[in-house]
Amino acid sequence: MDYFIELLFSGLTRGSIYALIALGYTMVYGIIGLINFAHGEIYMIGAFTAFIVATVLSIYGFPLLAIVVVAGVAATVWSSAYGYTIEKIAYKPLRHAPRLSPLISAIGMSIFLQNYVLLAQTSDFLPFPELIPEFAFMEPVAHIVGSSDLVILVTTTIIMLILTFVIKFTRIGKAMRATAQDRTMAMLVGINVNNIISATFIIGSALAAIGGLLIASHIGQINFYIGFIAGIKAFTAAVLGGIGSIPGAVLGSLILGLTESFATGYISSDYEDVFAFSLLVLILIFKPSGLLGKAETQKV
Amino acid sequence: MFSYKEIKKTALISLWFVFLTFPIMVIKVDPIERIVRWRWDNAIYVGVGIFFTRFLIEYLKDRNNKRQAAKRSANKESQPIIHSIIANPKQRNIVIVVLLSTAFIFPFIFSTYQTNIMITALMYVVLGLGLNIVVGMAGLLDLGFVAFYAVGAYSYALLNYHFGLGFWAVLPIGGCLAGLAGLILGFPVLRLRGDYLAIVTLGFGEIIRLVLENWNDFSMGPSGISNIDRPGFFGIELSLNGSIMYLYYIMIVLMIITIFIVNRLQDSRLGRAWIALREDEIACQAMGIDKRKTKLVAFSLGAFWAGIVGVIFAAKTTFINPASFTFLESAIILSIVVLGGMGSIIGVIMGAFILILLPEYLRAFSEYRMLVFGGILVAMMVFRPQGLISNIRRTYTFNKDQ
Amino acid sequence: MTTPILKVTGLTMDFGGIRALNRLDLDVCAGEIVALIGPNGAGKTTFFNCVTGIYQPTGGDMILTPPGGHKSINLKGLKPNTVTEKGLARTFQNIRLFSKMTVLENVMIGRHCRTHAFIFGAIFRTKATRKEEKEIIEMSYSLLKEVGLAHLADEFAENLAYGAQRRLEIARALATEPLLLLLDEPAAGMNPQETLQLKELIKKIASAGQAILLIEHDMKLVMSLSDRIFVMDYGKKIAEGVPAEIRANPEVIKAYLGEDIDA
Amino acid sequence: MKLNINRTLFSTAACFLIAVATPALTHAGDTIKFGVAGAHSGDLASYGLPTVNAARLVIDKVNAAGGINGKMIEMLIEDDVCKPEIATNTATKLVSDGVDVVLGHICSGATKAALPIYKNASILVMSPSATNPALTESGDYPNFFRTIAPDDAQAMVDVKFVLNTLKYTKIAVIHDKGDYGKGFAEFAKTFLEDSGKAEVVLFEGVTPGAVDYSAIVQKIKHSGAEAVIFGGYHPEASKIIRMMRKKRLKIDFISDDGVKDNTFIKVAGKYAEGAYASGPTDTTNNPLSIEAVRAHKEKFNTDPGAFFANAYSATLALLNAIDKAGSTELEALKKALQTETIDTPVGNIYFDEKGDAIGVGFSVYQVQDGVFVEL
Fold first, then answer.
1. Which CATH architecture has domain D152-256?
2. Full-prediction pTM beyond 0.80?
3. Nearest-CA distance from B296 to chain D in Å?
C-alpha cells in the first residue's frame, strides 16, 4: 500500500509538471489551432532566465525569498516577451497560410531557439539553484512527497483555478473564448483579435516560465535541450485531455503522469513511454477528441 | 523608407530585441566559481544587427510590392516559370535530358563526399515523395513517418544479419513490411481527424523507436547492428568509392521510378480521390468514395516508400541504431513536403535538396549551422507560406466535340 | 401504382434530448420531382443527412428499390459512400466543392464509385484503365455541357461564380448516375435570372427520367417544378400532396406560408 | 496565388547553386590535417564540444612552438550530431578534404558507421569517448584507437568494487537506454550474476530527459537494493541521485566514466557527496591534467566538459605518433602508437594491438567534500 501511495504521488508530481507546460499548448491551440512546437523552448528559456537571474542574485548575496520572487518575475516577463515576439515573427504572417505552414515555422523556431541558447550560453548542463527549500514540516513524509513536489502540486492547482476564473469570468477571458470559437465573428463584434492572440501567447508563455522555474528547481539542472522532450510530453497530455480545453490539459497531464508512474512501478520503466503513448492511442480511438474535448459536430 | 518615423520604429524594435535577448546574450554566470560576466558587447551587436536586418527586410518587401503592383497594372498573366516548362513538352524534355545527364555524370565530376551527400538528398527526395502521398495528397498529417523508415532499415539489417539475405532480396520485402505496418497502424487511427491523427502517429513513431531501443533480443538495442552488407553488384566486391557510386545510381533509378509512379498515381482515379479527400471529406463520401479505404491505401503506400528507403539507408550507412529514427527525422521529412508545396512533386524534390543539402553546405558556418537552418525554415515559411511550388492545375486533353 | 424508388417510413432522429425528425414518412417514385418544404429549422437538411448516411437515424426505415425488379435495400446503417453507390446522390446547402480541383475534376470525382481502376491500373495504365479514364473524362465533360459549364472545365472550382458552383454540384452528383437526386436548396442565394436557368436545368434533368427530391424555399420554383410536395414543421410531416393541394392546405398556410399565399 | 517568376528563378538558381557548389577549397599538402568529428550541435553537443576545445588547446600550443617537423597543424572540425547517417557524410567529407588523422567520433554508433569509410582511406581514428567493446575487440577496425576504457572493462572495475570492497549482495542496475549506458549496465549485470556473490534485484532503463525520476527511485527503494549501479551520463546520474536523496533513499550509488566528470559534482551539488564513479586513474593530481584544465579556463573561461581529459590525451598521442613516425601513413602511425609511450592527462600510455590504451589505469573514485577522490 505504501508503495502504491508513493507511486501515486510520483505520478501526481510528474502530471502537475506536464500540466504547467500543457496549459500553454492547449491555450494556443484553442485560439489559433496551431501546435506550437516552440512552446517547449519557451519553457526552456524561462528556466534559463530564472537560472541566470537567481544565480546572479545569489552571487550578490540576496536572501532566498528575494531571489525566488525576482527570478520568478524575470522568468515570467522574459518568457512572455519571447512568446509575444515569436508569435509576431513566425506565426502572425502565416495566419491565412495553408494549415501546415505555421507548424513548420514552429519547428524551425524551435531549432533556432535551442541553438541560440546553446551558442549564447553553453552546451553543458548547469546546476539550477535550489529555490524551494526543504520544509521542516514535510520531514515526516519526505520519503513520499518532498517539498518541491508539494510546491509543484499546489502551484499547479492554484494556477489552474486562476486560469479557469480568468477564462470564465473576465473580459479578456470572454474575448478569448469568443476568438477561439469564431475569429471572424469575434472581429465583427469589436474584439481586437490580434491583441487577444498576443495575450494568449503571453499568458501561455508566462505559465511555461513558472513551470520552467519549478521544474528546473525540482530536478536541479538545466540545459538548452530540456524543452524538447518536456514539450512533446506536455503536448501529448494536452491532446489526451482534449486539446483546447483547460481542465482537459490538467486532467490529461495527471493521467499521463500517473500512467507513467504506475507503469514504471508495477511493470517496467523501459517501456514507460510506450505505455503513455498506447494509452493516448486507446483513448483517442474511443474518444476521438480527447477526454474533455468538444466532439466536433459535422456541419453539413 | 528612410523617413524619421521608420527609423524611429526600427530603433524601437532594435531596443526591444536588446531587451529580449538581454539575460541570455549579455549575462553569463558560473554558478560554481560564482562569477558573473556581463557581455555588453553582445547587446550592441544584437541592437545594430536587428536595426540593419529590419531595414533590409523592409527594403526587400517594398521592392517586391512595387514589382507586384507594376505587374498588376501591366495586367500580365505571369505564368510561373516551372509551370510553363511543365506545360511545354519541348522545354520539359530539354530540361529532363539536361538534368538526367547532369545526374549521370555527377559522380565523375565531384568528390565522393559530394556523391555521398547527394545520395542522402536523393533518399530524402524519395521519402518526401512517399510522405507527399500521405500529407500532400490525402491530407493526413503524419508525424511518425520515421517509424516506417525504421521498419525498412531494420528489416534489412536483421534479415541480413540472421539469414544473410542480400540487398536486392530485402528491398521489396522491406517495402512490403513497412506498407503492412502502415496498414496495421492506419486501421485503428485513420478515423481521427487532423491534429489528433498527428499526435497519434507521433506516438507510434516513438513507440517503434522505444521498442527497438529496449527489446535487445530482437533489435540488439541501442548499440545497433553493424557490418550490414552494401548492395551487391552481381557478386562483385566493390571498393568503398565504387559502392558509393553504385548506390548513387541505384538512388537515381529509384527516384525516377518513384516520380513516375507517384505522378501516375496522382493522375489516376485514386489520386483524384486523395486530393478530394484532402479538400472535403464529407463531400467526398457523398460522392461515393470510401474514406477509410482510400486513406489506408495512401497511408500504406507512403509507408511502402519509407520502407524501401529504409533498406537503402541501412545499406548505405552499414550501421543502424534507434538513434537515427527520432521525431526530428519525421519533422524534417514533413518540412520537405510543406516547404516544397503540398502535393507538388517538383516542390518536394526542391524541398529535399534544400533542406538536406543546406545543413551540409552550412558546415562552413560550423557551430552556427543549426541556428541558421532553423532561421531559414522560419523565413521560408513566412515569405512563402504555400511552399515553393503551389498547386498546379491539371488539364485534360480529349475530343470535346463528341 | 409502382413501387417508389425511395420509401421512408417512421424516420426519427434525436440529438440529445431534441427530436429533430419525428416519425417521418415520405416516398419518391421514378421520374418524379418531389419537393420537401418547411420553415427554417424544420429538419429538412437533417432528413437529407439521415437518408444519405451522414447521420445515423434513431429509428425508422429507408427502403431504396431500384427499378427493373431489383431487390430493395434498406439504407439504414449504411455509410455515406455506400448510400451513394446504391444510387442516392446529393448536393449541399452550403456548397461543398473541391475548391483546389478544376471544374472537370470535380465532376470526375463523381464517377469514382462507378469506376474501378486501383493501384495496379494507375501505375501501369492498363488498357482497361485507359479506356475507363477516357470514359470518365468524356462523360464528365458531357455533363458539364449539360449544366452549361463546359467552357470553364479547366478553371479551379473556387474561381466560379456562385450560380455556376451550384450547377457544378448538380453535375457532380449526376456523375454518380443516381437513381434519385437530392438537391438541398439549389436556388439559395441565386438572383432571379440564375433561378430561372436553374429551373430549366432541373426540368431538363427530370425530362430524362431522373427522379429528384428537392428542398427549396423559393415557392415559385417549388410550385412550378414539383409533382408532389411534402411539408414539414418541427420534424413532423404536416401535409403532402400536389402543389394545388398544398397551396390550399390551411395547416400549411398557418405553419409556414402565413397569409400571403401568392408570395 | 500566382508565383513570382523572379523569385522562382531565384530559388531554383539557389537550389542549383547549393547542389553544385564545391566545399571548402582543399589546400596543398603543407599542413597536417587534423580532423575533429563528433556531436557539435543537437542534444549531445555537450559531449562533443569539449573534445574540440581539447584539440584546439593542444594544437595551438604545438603550432605556436613551430608545428611538427616544420608543418603546421590544421583543424578540420566536422559535426555528426551523434547520428550514424550524418557521421558517414562527415567521414566522407573529411576524407575528401584530405584529412590525415581523425580525433573522434564521440558516440559509439556514429563511430561504427564512420569507421569503414576511414578504413577504406587508410586513415587513423582515435576516439576519446566511444566505449563500445566491439570497436576494438571485433578486429573489424584496425585503424581505430581510443583513450577510454571499453564498457566491459569499466563494468568489471565497478562490479569488483561493489562485490569486494563494499560487499553488497543486492544490487539495482539502472541505465539510460543509450548505447553507452545500456552497454555498460548489461556488462555489469552479467558480471554480477556470473560472480554468484550478488543478486541483481532490478534492471531497468530510465528515459533520458524525463522531468521527474521519483517513480524509479521508489521502485529502487521497493526492490530492497543495497546499492545502485548506474550506466549512463552525468545529467541523468545527478537527477537520479538527487531524487534518491530527496526521497530519503540513502543507499550507495556507483557509476561509470560518463559520470566521473566534474560537471556531475557541480550539478548534483551536495547530493553527489559519497557517490562512486570509475574513471582513469589519477587524473586530478596529474600535473598534465591540472595544466590542461588551467589552460582551458584561461582560454574559454569555463571548466572543461565531458571527455576533455581523454580528448586532450588522444590529441597528444596522435601528434606524438605523427612526430615519431615522421609521416601520417596508417601503418607507421599504428606502429608509433603501439611502441611509443607518452605522458598524458590520463596517464602514461601506449596502445595495444586492438587499439585500446594501455596504462590508463582504472580506479574507483568517491565524491568527498565536492571533489572526486581516488580510492
1. 3-Layer(aba) Sandwich (3.40)
2. yes
3. 30
